[in-house]
Amino acid sequence: MWIVNQNFRKYHQDKIKVRMNAYGHEGGTVVAKYVVSKIVGLMTNPVKDIKE
């Protein structure tokens, strides 16, 4: 999972836990159901430069 909007990073940092069940959304549509197995780099963005 990537958190695209940086404003939601703090929200997810306080909520997400290992072994929790979760759903991935695109807008209002559920596109994935998963169990969190590991949290890596929650407060960093893996994409440093986005080419437009």
Defining key terms:
52 residues, alpha+beta, 2 strands, 13% helix
Detailed description of the structure:
It is a single chain. The protein has 52 residues and is of the alpha+beta class. The chain has a domain at 6-35. It contains 1 helix and 2 strands, in the order αββ. A two-stranded antiparallel sheet has the order 1-2. The radius of gyration is 12 Å and the shape is globular.
Q: Would you spell out the secondary-structure blueprint of this structure?
A:
Layout: H1 9-15, E1 21-26, E2 29-35
Antiparallel strand pairs: 1-2
Give the ordered list of helices and strands: HEE
Helical fraction: 10-25%
Q: Please, how many helices?
A: 1
- Main sheet summary: 2 strands, antiparallel
Secondary structural class: alpha+beta
Strand ordering within the main sheet:
1-2
- Overall geometry comes to globular
Measured between the Cα atoms of the first and last residue, the distance is: 22 Å
SS elements, strand count: 2
Spans of at least 5 consecutive residues with low confidence: none
Radius of gyration in whole Å, from Cα? 12 Å
Kindly estimate the percentage of residues that lie in beta strands according to DSSP. 25-35%
Mean pLDDT across all residues, rounded? 82
